[in-house]
Amino acid sequence: MQSKKRILLVEDDRRLGDLVAKYLSRNDFKVSIERRGDTAPNRIIKEAPDLVVLDLMLPGMDGFEICRRVRPDYQGPILMLTAREDDMDQVAGLEMGADDYVKKPVEPRVLLARIRALMRRFEKMDESHMVKTPHLSKTNELVFGVLTINHSSRTVKLAGQQVVLTTNEFDLLWLLADNGGTILDRDTIYQKLRGIDYDGLDRSVDLAVSRLRKKLEDDSVHPRRIKTVWGQGYLFVPDAWE
Fold it and tell me: Digits of tens for pLDDT over the chain (242 positions)?
């Protein structure tokens, strides 16, 4: 019998936290609750839950800082809750390493659907990832000149130096690199990485590409390693890493 997936809910609103935990528990998840932000990072890293649901506004430490602190050590999905309508909060959350966000007030069925979508996405990445290309070795490692991407260890090295990426960034880089030389449109990227259709408004992929370029020392104004093909999508250039 398959064990239940473990979720750590970081939420200081006791009534909401208990309600969400009860609902998720009824849907075959094992839920633990953390009510303080300043104690959340150690608990996330120590317990390594299958998924973290993280409120933005918390006592002791906010969700942004929690994301920033745990991302080097925690590779699982983080779904952020935000009560604000400001898109900049959502952008900032994605920048800090969140994989998705849900606006408050939380509709339990919507939250459940987003959690399941994230779980499916991460399970797919672990099982088979993307369609294999001739670049993919038996050790799940892609090598392009000075760039090495290892899927088994989920590590990236540029000229021998390790590059720290968020889960979102690594998954996007692997997808682009595994399809090197092929233009991937946003619809394909969203379907592969998030299991949803692109709504024409979400900028999370564009932001992730921008962060990847910066971390991989690509020119942000005139990129040559990860190119934007206007009106079509993004192109990973295999020969640009020599």
Answer: 457 899 999 999 999 999 999 999 999 999 999 999 999 999 999 999 999 999 999 999 999 899 888 987 888 889 988 876 656 666 666 667 788 888 888 888 889 988 998 888 777 655 544 433 434 444 488 999 999 999 888 889 999 999 988 777 888 999 999 999 999 988 888 888 766 666 666 677 888 888 899 999 998 888 999 999 988 899 999 999 98
Q: Both tokens of residue 218?
A: 């690509």
3-class SS of residue 233: strand
Rounded-to-integer distance, Cα 215 and Cα 199, Å = 27
Q: Among candidates 113, 111, 207, 139, which has minimal Cα distance to 168?
A: 207
* Cα 200-202-205 angle, rounded to 5 deg: 110
Tell me the two tokens of residue 61. Answer: 């430490």
Number of neighbouring beta carbons within 10 Å of residue 31: 22
Please tell me what DSSP assigns to residue 223.
-
Q: How far is CA 124 from CA 72, 118, 121, 134, 236, in A?
A: 22, 10, 5, 20, 22
Contacts of 162 (CB under 8 A, 6+ apart): 155, 156
State the Cα–Cα distance between residues 241 and 225, nearest whole angstrom: 7
